[in-house]
Specification:
alpha+beta, 9-stranded antiparallel β-sheet, 7-stranded mixed β-sheet
């Protein structure tokens, strides 16, 4: 597997069921099931299933769903299971990759042998990691927008896309509109929302609070967190006059996707790993915490798997990276970025322990190659004077408010990370707490000047 593939392993759509995509294999033909993000299956009768490519299957599924040409770029075929997710290249042969699945699990997961023996992948038709958001904005086809909407909705409900409560309510309100129709005043609408609440909001906003205090409160029906906000947001969904019902649905699909575009990890591939916790307590015990690493065309986000908030978010212009794995050592993805210690600018280095570190490093490199090869306008934008600042223009005031709320789940929480900190004083690299050093990694986005101070390596450095 190389850098053009995207793979991941955290819990996701594959957990819905253990399912096989090939129901029967004959001498010439086979019935192949390709799953959509709403868990429906599209059956295909395929000749020579052993040698058919992902590109051929992609064409067959587009014809079966009668999708326009934009679907060639917008979607890809994935092989998914509860243990691993891999986006296939057009040249890949899904049947052969399935036969190699045990080897892929052994190479890229830490799953127990019994789980690996029972694991079986299925084919899924979903968003291509390398499909730019700017092109998605140009999509007008209802069927394509619906497929993109279903995937975004799933990722929001499963908290693969962590959202602030107010954003969850607004997104959930659009789902209410699409599934229940326009808002109607009265108890009937409130009951309809309550009955399907977990279809509109993530699970943690659907749980009623349990405490001794609430037990003595009124015995009348209590709203769960987010329910009243959802109803209020549902009531505020705008209904434009004119147009058919299909056109109205298309507008709401687009509105949902536009809201998701505000999330920096929209359209990511997801990987699982661990990072060091900061040392705490008298004995300075640290340990590790589970994280999800989300990578898209714009950058890398490290998300706390348990708390469902961002620990670190970096654009490619803001980081250097490397991947190391030698002998029996644990594979590591290294992320280097700017930081500060007691008012002094320093370099910070984060270690992400993961058997998928090789996949992550390859995907980062491939995303940057795409930026160089296919986005000349982006490359030109980054070549600006230092006074103007590197990279794309900053977001508008309204976007900044949405994405930079105090305590927003999308804001980095570097204080929750244990990093290797160091600084170059022009003569030597001086170590900052903790007292460790590491070499500087030269792999970085080359679209223009990096936005952090380059640390020069010395022969005396040891890897941390």
């Amino acid at each position: 597997m190389d850098g053009g593939e995207a793979g991941s392993g955290p819990p996701g759509p594959a957990e819905r069921s253990h399912r096989s995509s090939v129901s029967s294999v004959g001498a010439r033909a086979a019935d192949v099931l390709v799953y959509l993000m709403d868990d429906t299956a599209v059956p295909l009768v395929v000749e020579n299933v052993v040698s058919i490519t992902a590109q051929d299957l992609h064409r067959a599924i587009r014809e079966a769903l009668q999708l326009p040409d934009i679907a060639v770029e917008a979607f890809a075929l994935w092989l998914i299971s509860p243990l691993l997710e891999v986006q296939l290249k057009p040249k890949h042969q899904p049947y052969k990759v399935c036969r190699q699945w045990p080897d892929l699990l052994l190479r890229f997961t830490d799953a127990p042998e019994d789980d690996m023996a029972m694991d079986e992948p299925s084919l899924q038709f979903r968003r291509n990691v390398f499909f730019p958001k700017r092109k998605e904005l140009q999509v007008n086809n209802e069927d394509v927008l619906r497929l993109l909407y279903e995937e975004a909705k799933f990722n929001v409900l499963e908290v693969r896309y962590p959202c602030d409560v107010e954003d969850c309510e607004k997104l959930g309100a659009l789902v209410c509109r699409l599934e229940l129709g326009p808002y109607r005043q009265g108890q009937q609408t409130a009951c309809a929302v309550k009955e399907k609440l977990d279809s509109f909001l993530p699970a943690h906003l659907c749980k009623r609070p349990h405490s001794l205090f609430t037990a003595f409160r009124s015995r009348g029906p209590r709203l769960v967190p987010g329910e009243q906000g959802l109803l209020n947001a549902y009531q505020e969904v705008k209904e434009e006059e004119g147009g058919s019902e299909a056109e109205l649905l298309t507008r709401h699909y687009r509105a949902y996707l536009l809201k998701c575009h505000e999330l920096p990890y929209y359209g990511c591939a997801f990987f699982c790993g661990e990072v060091d916790k900061p040392a705490q307590g008298f004995l300075h015990r640290g340990g590790r915490k589970a994280v999800t690493v989300a990578i898209n065309l714009e950058g890398v986000h490290v998300i706390d798997t348990k708390e469902k908030h961002v620990l670190l978010g970096l654009r490619f212009q803001e980081l250097s990276w490397d991947y190391t794995c030698s002998g029996d050592d644990e594979p590591i993805l290294w992320l280097e970025f700017d930081g500060e210690s007691e008012g002094m600018p320093i370099n910070k280095l984060l270690k992400v322990y993961s058997k998928q570190a090789e996949l992550m490093s390859g995907l980062i490199e491939y995303c940057i190659e795409l930026s160089l090869a296919k986005e000349p306008a982006l490359a030109q934008e980054t070549k600006v004077s230092p006074s103007a600042g590197p990279g794309p223009q900053p977001p508008t005031t309204s976007q900044r408010h949405k994405l930079r709320r105090q305590s927003s789940v999308v804001c980095s929480r570097i204080q929750h990370l244990a990093t290797i900190d160091y600084v170059d004083d022009g003569k030597e690299i001086k170590r900052v707490k903790p007292k460790r050093t590491t070499s500087f990694f030269s792999r970085q986005l080359s679209l223009g000047p990096a936005t952090y101070g380059v640390v020069q390596p010395t022969d005396s450095l040891e890897q941390g």
